[in-house]
Request: fold
Amino acid sequence: MRGHVVNLEVTSQPLAALDTDLLVVGIAQDESLSPAAQALDSEWEGLIGRVREDGAFKGKAYELEWIYPAPGKARRALLIGTGKVSAYDVRVVRRSAAIALRQARAKRAARVTIALPAGGRVDSNLLVQAVADGALTGLAGSDLYKDVENRGEIQTLHIVVAEAGGGASEALERGRKIAEAVNFGRWLGDEPANIMTPVRAAEEAQRWAAECGLECQVLGEDELREAGMGSLLSVATGSKLPPQVVVLAYNGGGGPMLGLVGKGVTFDTGGISIKPAADMHYMKYDMCGAAAVIAAIGGIARLGLKANVIAVAGLVENMPSGTATRPGDVVRAANGKTIEIINTDAEGRLVLADALDLARTRGAERLVDVATLTGAIKVALGDVATGAMGNNEDWTNQVLAAAKATGEPLWPMPLYPEYTEKLKSNIADLMNTGGRFGGALTAAAFLQQFVGDTPWVHLDVAGTAYTEKDVSWQMKGATGVMIRTLIELASSDLE
Ligand code: BES
Ligand code: MN
Ligand code: ZN
Reply:
C-alpha cells in the first residue's frame, strides 16, 4: 500500500549522535526541554534555547520551526510544538508524528528520526505506539488515482525513547497494526462508489479476513431474502448492484461476545427521496461504518487480543429507479417488525435494523454499531465529535472510556422513550423517520427496536467519518474514525 515506511525502529541513542536526514524534536509549550532535547541543545551550544528565547516559536501544538542546515550530524532539524502539557495526549502525539512525516516526505528525507516527549498521560510505550500510528496514518493519502510517482519515500523511521527495552518494540508493533487497520478502513471509504461496490467491498473484506486470520462469510441476495431481511433488502431494490452482508468472526477467547455492526451504503443518492446535487459526491463515504467494523476486527485479530468478536457489515447501494422502494411502502424486517418507509433517504437505519438483528442471532452479547447515519448529528456536534447513543449506561460508559483512551472525541446523546413515540405509524409497527427535530435521536430510537435488551451503543459518525478539508496531519477524505476506539474496546475487560 502507498504511504508506507520501509523500516520502523526504536532507538535510545543520544539525538546528536544520529546520522539522519531529518531530526524531529518535540517541544512542549511553557515547559523545560525533555531530557533528550536538553542533551541535544547542549551539543548544539544552546541553539534550541535561543530559538525559543527569540519568541517566535512558542511550542504551541503543531507549530513548526526548521533548522537548516542543522549544526550536528543531522542534515536538517524540525522543531515541532506539542502544546501545553495539560492537553498532551496520544492524539497530539499521533498528529505531531503525522505532520513530521508528511514534512519529511515533502523534503525528500529518506531517513527520519523523531523524538517527542513522554510524560503526563502519555507513558513511554504509549508514546512509541502513537508515534508509529501517527507516522503511518499521516503518510496514507486519499489521492488514490493521482500520479504520485515522484513522491519521496521514507526508508527508515527511528523513534527515540529513553530506554529501548521495557516493551517498546511491542508498542511499536501495536502502533503499526492499529495504523494498518485504520488505513485499510480509510481506503475502503476513499475508493469511489463505482469501484467500491457492495460486491467489491465484500471481496476486500474476504481478502482482509484471510490476511488477519478471521472467519468470513458473505451472504448474497438469496440468503438475505431467506433470512427475512426485508428491511435491508428494501434499500437495495433500486440499484443494479446486488446487496451483500459480510460476517467476520474472531475468537480470541474470554468475555461476552462483542458484536460490531456497520452501515455500508456504498453510495447514498437518497433513493426516490433523492438528495440535492451539492455535496452528493460525499455519499461515497456512507459505507465508513462498515469499513470501520471490518478494519477494527482485523486489527483486533492481528493484535491477538483476548476477545470474542463478530463484525456484521450491511453493504448496499441506495439508488432511485423503477424498481426502487417508494415512500409509503411497508417492509418486514428479520425480527418480524413492519416498517413504513416515509423517506427513502433514511436508509441507513433500514440496513442496520437487519444487521443488528443478525449480530444478535449469531450470539453477540454486547453491541456497538458505527454509521454515517444522520445529518442531524453533524448539526449537533460538527466534524469534531462522534455521537454515542445507547440503551445501557454501563456499556455506554465502557465505550466512552475506550474512546477517551484513544483520543477520539465521542460525546453521549440522550435516548429518551419520547423519541420512540415519534416513530409510530398508522399502518405498520414503525415509521423510518421521526419528524424534523432531534433527527440523530429518533434514528437511534429506531435502531433500538432491533437490539432487544442486549447492551448496545450506536455511534453516529456522519460528522466525523470524513473530512472535507486538508489539515497538516491528514489529507482530506476518510478518517477511519472509531477504528482505534473499537480495537481499544476489545482490549478492555468486557465483564
Ligand atoms: N447518509 C445520510 C446521513 C449523512 C449526512 C451522512 C451527511 C454524512 C453526511 C443518511 O442516510 C441520511 O440521508 N439521513 C437523513 C435522514 C432523514 C431523511 C430522516 C438526514 O440526515 O437528512
Ligand atoms: Mn440517506
Ligand atoms: Zn445514508
